[in-house]
Amino acid sequence: AKVNGRNQASFYDRSMSRDLVRRREIEAELRVAVQRDELSIFFQPIVDLATGRIKAFEALVRWFHPEKGELRPDEFIPVAEETGAIITLGNWITAQAAKAAATWPEDITVAVNLSPLQIKAPGAALGILNALREAKLDPRRLELEITETVLLDHSQQTEDFIAELSAAGVRFALDDFGTGYSSLGYLNKYPFGKIKVDRSFVSGPNAGKKSDAIIRAVSGMATTLDMAIVAEGLETVEQVEAVKAAGCTLGQGYYFSRAVPDYLAAMLIAQEREK
Ligand code: C2E
Ligand code: CA
Ligand code: CA
Ligand code: CA
Questions:
Q1: Whose CA is nearest to atom 41 of ligand 1?
Q2: Where is the EAL domain (predicted)?
Q3: Protein residue with its CA nearest to atom 7 in ligand 1
Q4: What is the rounded CA–CA span in Å between residue 83 and residue 54?
Q5: Which mutation among 30, 88, 113, 114 tests ligand 1's pocket best, with the greatest number of atoms within 8 A of CB?
Q6: What backbone torsions phi and psi does residue 73 show, to the nearest 5 degrees?
Q7: 202: closest CA among 241, 256, 160, 144?
Q8: Which of 25, 163, 224, 264 has a CB 3.0–4.6 Å from the CB of 260, allowing a cystine?
Q9: 147 close to ligand 1 (CB < 6 Angstrom)
Q10: Does residue 112 contact residue 152 with C-beta atoms inside 8 Å?
């Protein structure tokens, strides 16, 4: 058993160091990825479930690495958060998203994901307002998606950040609703215009009658509070019908479209507006 234990330990050591090596590589390469033009922003439509029309696009970052291939944000965003690179990266993402949105019709907004660290950086709100000014995008056309984790520590910085941008017209959405504490207090305290119900309520092992009932309750509350409710991760027509019946007004997912590069987003808009 002793020998076995040792073998096992060295197996874990090896796989752990492989992960660590990859992390270190990502960490080092991320610093130059923007300059090398390896990163780009893709856009996934958010659709009005009643009319089928595109109301917004969510900006999702992609990294096309010359050797590693496409890296998912779930892999490199946490590294960028750890090293602090997320501040520069985040500002770049907001600027790119704002630039793209400025070319769309005025009734289409752009949603950008924010990391907790980004919000707490000094001058965070200013960085976003600068990006908007440079892109000449009306602040009301930017929506910032934040998760509950951001609000957990009740920090003054977060409050000021939200208050300052909200006063400028920027909108806020509560992302991944249902995965964290889902304290309803947040909904009262902060000016969220939208709640995004996490994909796990729509598909996967935990979706079903129970999650339908939860969506129904949340959407009832959202309507009362004058908030829109978005269902994420819609892949099938059955899921679309189910969330619609449960009261969701907006939807997002592969059923409508994956995230696409800016020129394809522009094509999706053009196609729709022709009708
Ligand atoms: P998220 O904000 O919850 O974004 C939605 C994720 O679900 C995206 O993954 C999207 O491609 C994926 N998705 C959309 N529809 C479907 C569907 O029908 N089925 C399935 N299976 N998945 C669907 P992605 O782009 O890999 O992003 C993962 C996470 O990484 C995001 O989750 C967000 O938390 C983070 N992220 C992405 N881009 C950014 C960014 O620019 N900044 C920051 N801070 N985080 C980002
Ligand atoms: Ca999001
Ligand atoms: Ca989400
Ligand atoms: Ca997520």
A1: 61
A2: 23-273
A3: 233
A4: 36
A5: 113
A6: -55, -30
A7: 241
A8: 264
A9: no
A10: no
Does this model's pTM top 0.90? My answer is yes
Amino acid identity, position 193: G
* Helix, strand, coil percentages, rounded to 5, for the chain: 50, 20, 30
252 Cα to the center of ligand 2, angstroms: 10
Q: Could you tell me if 143 and 172 are in contact, meaning their C-beta atoms sit under 8 angstroms apart?
A: yes
CB 108 less than 6 A from any atom of ligand 1: no
Least confident of 57-66, 116-125, 259-268: 116-125
pLDDT tens-place string over residues 192-225: 999 999 998 887 666 777 778 888 888 888 888 8
Q: How far is residue 116's CA from residue 120's CA, in Å, rounded to a whole number?
A: 7
Structure tokens at 5: 């234990």
**pLDDT for the residue 224:** 87
